[in-house]
Write a structure and sequence with these properties.
Length: 273
């Protein structure tokens, strides 16, 4: 399965820092921390038992619902896709596909073998390799669609882990709240015990809300967005590779057909190139 990930995922010449993720996370945590500091100090909002129940408990439940490799790969994907971004420009993909279509039209599909080393996208490499090998269009389409379906499954599984964390963390916070309330009710005769028990009851709810709305929820949505971007690129590649194999479409017409998958700004960028 991991090998298929390398086949279906898009790549580029280098990693780029996703500034939006870092700025958003820093701003959210900074403003929350500032509010805490003005409400009795940050230390008042830290309690070991609450951290153990919400963070430790929710991670434990996540491990129960998934396999260890999937859990590790999900975190690796978060690092790769939300911090060290590696998105490929669809305009560049179209330019590569049209260039290869011109080469195939002029010199035959065998001539594409010399261009394969220049391709950075594994999905495109796989498609062109099958074209060069003389694989029929139906088999190429079926094979690449299978790769694309596997990619969608993995991406949904990875983002699903964080969607589950979004649901589990508040639930663990509620469990901590109930534990704190039980402790408080059992020690109503001791005024000194009411404060710590109430703190656990409230802080676990706070921690659960923070995980769900500051970490898990946004990260899951960002993974879904990146997955949609990769799927669009793969569909674009699939259409282009099939047309190169058939050889029935003029490269200029192919460029216009692939342009329909681009956003208006990207269409303008392609027209200007």
């Amino acid at each position: 399965m991991q090998g298929q990930e390398n086949t279906a995922s898009t790549s580029s010449s280098g990693l780029e820092m996703d500034i939006a993720t870092l700025i958003g996370l820093a701003a959210a945590l900074g403003l929350i921390g500032y509010t805490m500091a003005g409400s009795g100090g940050a230390t008042a909002f830290f309690e070991v038992g609450s951290v153990a129940v919400v963070f430790g408990g929710s991670i434990g439940v996540l491990l129960m619902r998934s396999t260890l490799p999937d859990f590790i790969n999900a975190w690796a994907r978060v690092l790769k896709k939300t911090i060290l971004n590696k998105n490929e420009d669809p305009v560049e993909l179209i330019e590569q596909i049209v260039s290869m279509a011109n080469t195939a039209r002029r010199d035959g599909v065998i001539a594409l073998e010399g261009q394969m080393a220049e391709l950075s996208n594994p999905f495109l490499q796989r498609g062109i390799s099958m074209v060069v090998d003389g694989t029929d269009a139906e088999t190429i389409e079926s094979t690449l669609n299978n790769d694309l379906d596997l990619m969608k499954y993995r991406h949904a599984n990875y983002s699903g882990i964080f969607k589950s964390w979004k649901d589990i963390a508040p639930a663990m916070g509620m469990i901590g709240t109930l534990v704190g309330l039980v402790g408080m009710l059992q020690n109503m005769s001791d005024p000194k015990a009411i404060g710590p028990s109430m703190a656990i009851a409230l802080l676990t709810t706070l921690y659960g809300a923070l995980i769900a709305n500051v970490l898990a929820g946004p990260l899951a949505e960002k993974l879904d967005n990146y997955s949609l971007h990769e799927q669009n690129n793969c569909n674009l590649i699939l259409e282009g590779v099939i047309e190169i194999r058939k050889g029935t479409m003029n490269p200029r017409v192919l460029s216009e057909a692939l342009k329909s998958r681009l956003s208006p700004p990207d269409r303008e960028k392609l027209a200007a190139s």
